[in-house]
Design brief:
With about 160 residues, this protein is of the alpha+beta class. The chain has six helices and seven strands. The protein is elongated, with a radius of gyration of 22 Å.
């Protein structure tokens, strides 16, 4: 899940409207990693001077590890300083469910998408060869008529 919205991805446009959207767009811009230029979910690390960058970019720094902004020496990755205020700010940014469009936050969107009724489901007999994919509301009706699922149910007691 990454992206800052510049390419019209999951998080929407950087500035959606002059009111609320502009404020959230500016907030997202301040939370960008200076290395990859994206607003990454997950851990954010910082140097002793307070420069913040995403953990993904931090793990890719070559030895000797130095801050990408001020070049200050960084300790081992196992002792990275987390910036929890950045992490919380990123989690509070607006996001939308990629299945139903529900407006929520980046910190809550993954949990919603896992249970979203509009999330595509696969047939339980997919491993047996069924290629059906559809909504949860249609799954029971499909299973009742799916020849792969019927065979699996008949063979289960054996």
């Amino acid at each position: 899940f990454g992206g800052d919205g510049r390419r019209g991805g999951r998080w929407g446009p950087r500035v959606a409207s002059p009111e609320k959207g502009a404020a959230s767009g500016m907030a997202a811009q301040r939370l960008e990693c200076p290395v990859c230029l994206e607003v990454q979910d997950g851990q954010q690390h910082q140097c002793r001077e307070g420069h913040v960058f995403c953990a993904s970019c931090d793990s890719n720094l070559r030895a000797p590890r130095r801050c990408p902004e001020c070049r200050m020496a960084l300790g081992p990755l196992s002792q990275a300083i987390r910036c929890r205020s950045h992490e919380e700010s990123i989690a509070a940014l607006p996001a939308a469910c990629s299945h139903c469009g529900l407006a929520t936050t980046r910190g809550e969107v993954a949990a919603h998408e896992q249970d979203c009724p509009q999330r595509p489901r696969v047939c339980p007999a997919a491993e047996a060869g069924c290629a059906w994919s559809g909504l949860l509301a249609d799954k029971a009706a499909h299973e009742a008529t799916c020849p792969f699922a019927v065979c699996q149910r008949m063979m289960a007691p054996l």
